Amino acid sequence: MKNYQYSKLVEKITPKSPLKKDLINAFLFGGGISCFGQVLRTLYSMTSLTLTEAKMLVCVTLIVITAILTITGVFDKIGKVAGAGTFVPITGFANSVVSPALEFKAEGHILGTGAKMFNLAGPVIVYGCGAASLYGLFYWVIEKI
User: Fold this and answer.
1) If you count DSSP H runs as helices and E runs as strands, how many of each does the chain have, helices first?
2) CA 7 to CA 18: how far, in whole Å?
3) What are the residue boundaries of the structural domains of the chain, listed by start?
């Protein structure tokens, strides 16, 4: 079988993705997560917290909720319907840290959970911290000039 014949066969038997439905679900779920974050921020701002503290607490709350939903298997079910809508940065990042940790927990706390937890998120953390450090250094140099 030639490559082009194989490609035609794969295209023929592969089910078509319902693109419109997927786009609508991603938009609604991603927007819903963002709106939920805004509601949390408004609620936290109505307390004695400063705006900065309220924003930080929203991030922590979304991370904890995502971790709990990932641990219980609910986040995967939501992800099957929501698709890319669950990739809202904070929830997607929390899921990408918790999922590998759960998958490799049988290998032990250090070589399993600890080592595998940052397989997906590790490069983001490393490059994010590196970029933040360089930005801070440049900012410090510019402020001293």
Assistant:
1) 7, 0
2) 20
3) 19-103
